[in-house]
Design a protein that fits this description.
Elements lengths: L1 H11 L1 H23 L4 E5 L6 H13 L6 E4 L8 H13 L4 E4 L4 H13 L4 E4 L11 E6 L1 H16 L3 E8 L4 H17 L3 E8 L4 H14 L5 E4 L2 H13 L8 E4 L5 H5 L4 E4 L2 H17 L6 E4 L2 E3 L7 H6 L8
Parallel strand pairs: 1-2, 1-3, 3-4, 4-5, 5-11, 6-7, 6-8, 8-9, 9-10
Antiparallel strand pairs: 10-12
Helix pairs in contact: 3-11, 4-5, 6-7, 8-9
Length: about 325
Amino acid sequence: MYPNRFSVQTRTFGQAGTRCLAAFACLLILGIASCKSSPPTVAVIPRTCGTWLWEAEHTGAARTAPQYGLRVYWTAPMRDDDVQGQIQILDQCLKRKVSGVIVSPIEALPLRTPVQSALDAGAPVVVVGTDLGLAPGRKLAYVLNDETLGGQMAAQRVGARLGGKGAIAILGISPQLTSTLERERSLEKTLAVQFPGIRVVFRSLALPTVSQEQQVAEKLLVDGEHVDAIVALTEASTRGAFYALTEFNRTRATPLIGFDQNILAPIRTGEIDSVIIQNTFQMGRDAMTLMAQEIAGSNHAPYVVVPPQLVTRDTIDSAPVAQTLDLAWFKP
């Protein structure tokens, strides 16, 4: 019944129907042509979204992409410990035939194989934030935070606050990220050379959530050896240590030097001494520039290293810090 009815209806179109079909065909051809002429899409996959740390990267990438005729597809896991979720997102982006991928691995080792698979499939990749142990080449480049300098900044800050003497704790040492390990090595090396009177009496490995890091800090404050200051190497450990110090009313008695920019407001009140922030805004810009060069098949730097910034009460309102924390990715 339905085929016959359809055939009768198509016959009634006559000459007008033919013109409609011809117009539709033209629109379809134009639509296909416009799709083909759309800008190449670059997937940008941070560790998570909705944070100062990674939304600033979004700003840098989104502001830079149009300069090279590219557009950004921004997507991320809901949590910054969802390694499998990040791998799935990377795989989905490759299935969508994006022109390239900029990725900030949650953990180095699990992301090594997916990134290598992307390279084998011909997709250029820029890795932001940590070295995967894959050698850079024509289609692979790195944009890294200067973790050595960050560790030195933390050591010099705690050395100045303690007058070169005292006991400290180091929280958030992550064996899953070469970047955080380099922070810790640089911190301890600088302390040993420049401040031999400062002893590290407590170290803890990084945990995935703020509440877990808070429990570690609380146990340290209740049962551990006395510490004169705390250095927290990750965003989660910085928050966890701050909440623990707040609970025991020790925010002003025990200076906290943290890393990564997801908790800065307490610096204004002196409840956090300082935070060493990654310039992910600049890292996003540099990553997109490298991606444009990779897509064009031109030579590019294998590594770009971006210096971090020490944020204190004296610098929190400075122009360089304001630019680093620019989250207005939607502006031209």
